[in-house]
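Changelog-adjacent note: as of this version, every example in the card shows the full chain rather than a window. The one below runs 334 residues end to end.
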Amino acid sequence: MKLTIRSLIVLLLIFQAGTIYGEQKNYNIGLQRISTFIQSEDVEMHIMVWYPTSEHAKITKIGPYEMEVAKSATVEPGSRGLILISHGDGGSHLNHRDTAIYLAKMGYIVAAVLHPHNNFLDNSEEGTFKNLINRPDEISKAIDLLLSQPGFKENINVNRIAVIGHSAGAYTALALAGGIPNMANIREHCNKHHDDSTFCNIFRVLSQQELGEGLIKSTRDPRIKAAVLMAPVGVLFDDDQSLVKVNIPIRIYRAEKDDILRYPYHAEFLQKKLLIESEYIVVKNAGHYSFITPIPDRMKDKVGKVANDPNGFDRVQFHEAMNKEIADFLSRLL
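Full-length structure tokens:
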């Protein structure tokens, strides 16, 4: 068959689209648990890593959940993007496992950190100055570890690293992107806006002295090339200079019925304040916890509010759409 110039151009565009928008093969999923000791915090940090593999996967119980994975399998060779996931206050490195698995099937290596002293086992540093400093540093240390870890370091493309965060995890992602937070903003905000009571109650345990420490030193990690913020904390970035150094692509999700980080003080505020144009999505009828992987029915009573959504919201359906959107965003911009 004779190909015209136009036919060749169409074929080339199709090939390029397949390359730009990620690998089309749905891989099996490998899973490893790795850890690193953080000397400055005197604590072991645990990381769950999902990645593409050609090895056989089977239904495996990981914590309270079942996943179809190949434990400790070898990584399918290739030049792969690395995605870090940061959970919210009191959360888990399994909170966003469906997103991690979806991205791993697309060919990414995905690492979810269990933030020390701010997780479901130990939440002793929630709402503290120390926690806001440590969280971005913990993600950077996870990148360091993966770039030195046999099996991962050979396959990670250092020009394709991104971070996804939910709630306090979105704060973490924005700090890594170059945002400079200021704790002093909290006092002023909470004195003015009593309707943002849930957020303010988290920080009410802090002493006036600690809140007064103010500006947090930049924790920007230049290896981060894109960020996805789900129900992000915004108040901390209220200074004129707080977001001027953020120059990477950002995608922001706001839950329309978020009763933890209330409109318009957080996601909406960031979208307006960022100097770069961000992708901004308001998820109709969603609640603050709607970004967490759907909780199995057998666990909903035990898990409580994290499992619940506003009446009529379908978390399963939403996650199917959101995971595709995030994969598209990352593939376009990494």
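Structural remarks: Confidence is low (pLDDT under 50) at residues 1-22.
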